[in-house]
Amino acid sequence: MKNNPFANGLFSNAVATQIENLADAAFASFEGQVLAAGLRRQSDLQFADLSGVDLSHSNLQGFDFTGADLRGAGGINVKWDHTTIFDGADLDGSVFAAPVRLARLFDENLKAQDLLRQLQRSGTDKAIIWVADNLLRGQEASSLAQLIGQVLFLTSEDTFLRSQLLFFLSSRLPPSALAELVTASLSNHHESGPVVRAALNVVRRRKLQADAGIRQTILSLVKSPNSSIQTSSLSAIMRSGVLPRELEYIKLAMEENEQLRKIYITEVSHIRGPEFDIVTRHPVHRDTYSFGQKITSLEIYLIARRWLKLEANTLEARKGVPLHKRSPASETFSESAVRERMKSVIELWDSLKRWGIHFSFDRQAPSSPIPNLPTENTQMVAGAIRLNLAPTRNLAD
To answer: Which InterPro entries match (predicted)?
Structure first.
């Protein structure tokens, strides 16, 4: 920056260094970026516009967000306590919204405090039954049950209790309160597969996918080391209309994560249609291809032939079985027909480039000689060595 002829003279050395530090910290946590920019946590974030910011893996103890706009600020593993100041801050839809709102309501309600202590001593089953029963009663009892149920949900370490409370509360809370509760749950329990899946089920069932805080927090889960959480979170984002900035975040997360790249290809294929599921998987063992994977001309031929055979299964088609889930039909196809379909395979691969997905292959394969080209009744035993596969499957499939 300081050696840039367009920047020389515009900034002092101190400011230029500060900007360089911030640029270097572009992919650090929010806390890391604040430190890199030389900002003071006790004063420089007051009245700041921090709406939609990713706060993942940040320790916000001692931060002063007085008057700040934190709407939709999400993320996982966000640490904060009573030293984090939110006076006058707009917390709607953020990871802080539910805990702060409930703490204020709870501190003012002595009856709720007494009931909570009793329920905590009575055990999981009685707590669930009490909340479920009182949610169905009059307005006063229901309001009290909603308050206690939410506090129990956020403070309990019992996974079963949390899942049951979320089930009952999800049909009683207004969408905004439920969204804030789910956001806090995903943030606080981001390592628990059952908790994450239960929360994502509620998000889908109550159509909360557009909530900014929820989306930001789900997006942060894409980097989870837990493959099931990766899969469910990426699916939730991709299948609810992925935004350009979200797609860029996902692409960065995939750079050093082979498993995530395969999950991404599967999700893009789901969005684009069943034909894409066919052309992004190995034609025999059905594993999803990797980014940049070399695909032989023989494999392209087998993919094309499999595609034709799946289309030819009209019996399952009439039953409504999706194309990619059908069994291959027994019909045979001429080599020229298969080669023509190979062109369509390549066209679909080309269309995936806009999603950042690409494979390595011979573009002239449809019109070029293909070594060891199988006949319709070639058995797997004949091709096992060539394809390095178990000799029990039929290449015609």
So the answer is: 5peptide_repeat
The whole-model pTM stands at: 0.76
Q: Tell whether the model's pLDDT for residue 244 goes beyond 50.
A: yes
Task: Answer whether residue 63 is part of any domain.
Answer: no
Q: pLDDT value at position 173? A: 92
Tokens of 33: 């970026």
Q: Does the residue 45 lie in any domain?
A: no
Tens-place pLDDT, residues 30-51? 999 898 888 899 999 999 999 9
Nearest to 167 by CA among 211, 115, 212, 131: 131
224, 300: one domain: no
Burial class, 142, CB count within 10 angstroms (exposed 0-12 / middle 13-18 / buried 19+): middle
**Domain carrying residue 312:** 274-387
246 and 283 belong to one structural domain: no
Q: Return the pLDDT at 7.
A: 43
Residues 321 and 228 grouped into a single domain: no
Q: Is residue 186 a contact partner of residue 217, using CB atoms and an 8 Å limit?
A: yes
**One-letter amino acid of 51:** S
Instruction: Report the C-alpha gap between 341 and 325 in whole angstroms.
Output: 19
Most confident range (mean pLDDT) of 114-123, 252-261, 263-272 is 263-272
Flag whether 225 is in a domain. yes
Alpha helices by DSSP H, the chain? 13-24, 30-36, 97-107, 110-122, 124-135, 139-155, 159-169, 175-188, 193-205, 212-220, 227-238, 244-254, 258-272, 274-279, 297-311, 314-318, 335-351, 380-387
pLDDT in tens, 334-388: 999 999 999 999 999 999 999 999 999 999 999 999 988 877 654 433 333 333 3
Angle of the 212-220 helix axis to the 175-188 helix axis, nearest 10: 20
Residue 396 lies in a domain: no
Domain boundary among 225, 256, 287: 256
254: its two tokens? 């995939």
Place of tokens 């009663």: 137
